[in-house]
Structures are given as structure tokens and as C-alpha cells.
Write a structure and sequence with these properties.
Order of helices and strands: HEEEEHHEEHEHEHEH
Mean pLDDT: 91
Strand order of the largest sheet: 5-8-7-6-9
CATH architecture: 3-Layer(aba) Sandwich
CATH superfamily: Nucleoside phosphorylase domain
CATH class: Alpha Beta
Helix content: 25-40%
Structural class: alpha/beta
Number of strands: 9
Shape: globular
Strand content: 15-25%
Length: 261
């Protein structure tokens, strides 16, 4: 069985970069936003790396890229996110994050597409994740791994993001297992629990990242109003369309944040 260290060694060999500093997981609608971070050094199909697969979900690139920032740091851009709803266990979902940690990354920028429970957050709104609610019932940890999740999403990194874009609101993200969209009743439940956003990724990855000692910045792109809030049926096409429309802002945000880290 391949380990994150095996994957990290393979990434170093295939990309020709010994170590990386910052990892970016590109969620649906974010695939092209990483391009503004810096100069691409190399890119490979994720299926070439142990424990990874190529892109299986529309909106994900299926590639792993090494990008150099203007100050010489290396960004590991992972466009081959594995989802819990694809039949993977939480360990498989966390493989990308643990590989990034093994590759030397101390900062994780995790992005996603999300449904908004708040009327005022219309499609195209970019939201900093202040906290999350894990509704999958799964964890990438086992045994007495008592990881403090009080500041799972770094206040320091959120402050940096607001230096780049002062208008960014903050909210709580709830991860559902998927792959079906949430019912209106489930959305109402999430709202009563304190959630502002709903989606099908991120929480499991962030748990793994914090266990690895990584500092985390989470960013959601609102691609639709959640079920029961939206007057229209939900579809993945609107997720991709919202990502394309918001691309200039996403590029500027990621470039500005990584330049300040």
C-alpha cells in the first residue's frame, strides 16, 4: 500500500522539485485560479503518483503542478481531489493533504464550491471559512489522536486574505457526505446548527491537515443558493459556470494571499 511519503517522493522525482512550501487544493470552479500564483515549473497527471487518480469530477483538473512564486517559494497545486462520495474512506480522502505535508508544505489553502444558506450570498460570492461542521460521520484519524480544532482555520491567514480582499465575509461550512445535493430539510438543519454554507468536501481534509501541523486557509466560492433557498433545481453545470464567471477575482485572491505568506 502506498503512503504519503511514497507519493511525496514520486512528486519530487516527476516534477523535479525537491520540496514545496504551500499546498493549494483546487475545488470545483477553482481549477484555473491557481495559474495566477506564479510561474508553472512542471505538471503531471495525478494518476502517475501513488495513491492518486486522474480527474474524476468535472471542474477538477486531475493534475498536480509545481508553481514558483516571485519570491522563490514553491506551491504544490493539487487538482485531483478525492471525495468521500466517490466511495473512498476518509484516509483516501486525506491522502492529498498528507502527501503535501510529506512534501514539505506547512500551509494549506483549501478551496471549494459551496451552496449558500444565506440569501445575500449570491452565486459568485467568495467566503472565508471561519469554521466547519463535519456531517459525514467520518474522520481521517484513528486511535487517541486528540487534535485541537479550535482554530482549524488560521486567524492569521484569514487576516492576510482580508488584506488582499477586504470585502471577504466569513462563515461556517458544513460538509455533507453527498453525492446527492442536500434536501431543503437538511439545509434547514444545517442552518439551525450554525452553518452558512453547505458542500461535499474540505472538513475531512482540514482535520488531516491540522493533525499534520499545517496552517489552513479555507475559501468557498458560492456557486448556488442551497436547496430550499434557491427557487431553481440544483445542478453541477451552475457550479462550473459560477467558477468561470468569478475566475478573475479568484486568481487575484490566490495570487495576493500566496505572495504574503
Amino acid at each position: 500500500m502506498s503512503t504519503p511519503r511514497d507519493a511525496a517522493r514520486a512528486i519530487a522525482e516527476r516534477l523535479g522539485v525537491e520540496a514545496h512550501d504551500i499546498a493549494v487544493i483546487a475545488g470545483s470552479g477553482w481549477a484555473d485560479a491557481v495559474t495566477g500564483v506564479g510561474r508553472e515549473i512542471a505538471a503531471i497527471d495525478a494518476s502517475e503518483i501513488p495513491g492518486f487518480e486522474g480527474g474524476g469530477v468535472a471542474g477538477h483538473s486531475g493534475q498536480i503542478r509545481s508553481i514558483a512564486t516571485t519570491d522563490g517559494r514553491r506551491v504544490l497545486a493539487i487538482g485531483a481531489r478525492r471525495h468521500y462520495y466517490e466511495g473512498r474512506d476518509a484516509t483516501a480522502v486525506a491522502h492529498g493533504v498528507r502527501t503535501a505535508a510529506a512534501a514539505g508544505c506547512t500551509v494549506l489553502v483549501v478551496t471549494n464550491a459551496a451552496g449558500s444558506i444565506r440569501w445575500e450570498w449570491t452565486p459568485g460570492t467568495v467566503v472565508l471559512i471561519d469554521d466547519h461542521i463535519n456531517l459525514t460521520g467520518a474522520s481521517p484519524l484513528s486511535g487517541p489522536a486528540f487534535v485541537d480544532m479550535t482554530d482549524a482555520y488560521s486567524p492569521r491567514l484569514r487576516a492576510i486574505a482580508r488584506e488582499v480582499d477586504p470585502e471577504l465575509p466569513g462563515g461556517v461550512y458544513a460538509q455533507f457526505p453527498g453525492p446527492q445535493y442536500e434536501t431543503p430539510a437538511e439545509v434547514r438543519m444545517a442552518r439551525e446548527m450554525g452553518a452558512d454554507l453547505v458542500g461535499m468536501s474540505t472538513a475531512i481534509e482540514v482535520i488531516a491537515a491540522r493533525a499534520e501541523g499545517m496552517e489552513v486557509l479555507g475559501i468557498s466560492l458560492v456557486t448556488n443558493l442551497a436547496a430550499g433557498i434557491s427557487p431553481q433545481p440544483l445542478s453541477h453545470d451552475e457550479v462550473l459556470a459560477a467558477g468561470a464567471d468569478a475566475e478573475p477575482r479568484l486568481v487575484a485572491l490566490l495570487a495576493g494571499v500566496t505572495a504574503r505568506l
